[in-house]
């Protein structure tokens, strides 16, 4: 997006966690198109992350991929420090990295519970904790939640829903605390979204699609549109909010 020829995020630096694929990759590319230099974290092979970086640089912006396991607190803090050292600032944090969890309540092992809560809850807190040390007025934090944080219409999702619902408390609490510093904190809840992790032609796609009011999967780009709005100047008076991009899943 550009206003009078100037893109809304010109001169800004963004960090997108889990930005090598799916929603994270779409968000990273959209923020670059909005004018930001974008760093992204990845945990696995560097190949997909470098492909996203190449797409970022093709827009004329700087891109960088840094390996960081969101389950490791030191790697989380190290990733933020590395981004600030490389780019000299940090204006936007998008907490996107997450892990799924499916299974009956009584069957989920303790180590799985710990992993999901570490990645989906602790890591967003730690990323934000580290990022706000470097954010000036106008800083933006957006976390990616889930439609299952607002409605859980099928069994087997209690752990995942718990982890994503926790982001509501994080968002509202940090919004209240960081508001006087001019930093906004918001939450986006995607519904069924066509990614390699949950393809629109997968085995459960028709089942999931049936829970939406629009009767279709969303796209990663549609989620990125919402993030773009929240980190831009048009949302300067929006904080502590939950924005559902779910096709009416929670309706």
Automatic annotation (TrEMBL):
<dbReference type="InterPro" id="IPR002347">
    <property type="entry name" value="SDR_fam"/>
</dbReference>
<feature type="domain" description="Ketoreductase">
    <location>
        <begin position="12"/>
        <end position="191"/>
    </location>
</feature>
<dbReference type="InterPro" id="IPR036291">
    <property type="entry name" value="NAD(P)-bd_dom_sf"/>
</dbReference>
<dbReference type="Pfam" id="PF13561">
    <property type="entry name" value="adh_short_C2"/>
</dbReference>
<comment type="similarity">
    <text>Belongs to the short-chain dehydrogenases/reductases (SDR) family.</text>
</comment>
<protein>
    <submittedName>
        <fullName>SDR family oxidoreductase</fullName>
    </submittedName>
</protein>
<dbReference type="InterPro" id="IPR057326">
    <property type="entry name" value="KR_dom"/>
</dbReference>
<keyword id="KW-0560">Oxidoreductase</keyword>
């Amino acid at each position: 997006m550009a206003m009078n020829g100037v893109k809304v995020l010109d001169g800004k630096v963004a960090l997108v966690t889990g930005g090598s694929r799916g929603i994270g990759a779409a968000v990273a590319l959209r923020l670059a198109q909005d004018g930001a230099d974008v760093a992204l974290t990845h945990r696995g092979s560097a190949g997909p992350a470098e492909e996203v970086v190449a797409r970022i640089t093709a827009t004329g912006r700087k891109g960088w991929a840094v390996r960081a396991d969101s389950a490791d607190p030191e790697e989380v803090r190290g990733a933020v420090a590395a981004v600030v050292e490389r780019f000299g600032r940090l204006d936007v944090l998008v907490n996107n990295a997450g892990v799924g969890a499916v299974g009956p309540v009584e069957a989920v092992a303790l180590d799985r519970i710990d992993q999901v809560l570490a990645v989906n809850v602790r890591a967003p807190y730690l990323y934000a904790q580290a990022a706000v040390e470097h954010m000036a007025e106008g800083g933006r934090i957006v976390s990616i939640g889930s439609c299952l944080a607002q409605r859980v219409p099928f069994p087997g999702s209690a752990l995942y829903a718990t982890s994503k619902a926790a982001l509501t408390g994080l968002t509202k609490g940090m919004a209240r605390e960081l508001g006087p510093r001019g930093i906004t904190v918001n939450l986006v809840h995607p519904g069924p979204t066509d990614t390699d992790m949950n393809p629109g032609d997968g085995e459960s796609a028709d089942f999931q699609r049936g829970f939406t009011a629009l009767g279709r999967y969303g796209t990663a780009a549609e989620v990125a549109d919402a993030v773009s709005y929240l980190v831009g100047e048009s949302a300067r008076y929006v904080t502590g909010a939950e924005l559902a991009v779910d096709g009416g899943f929670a309706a």
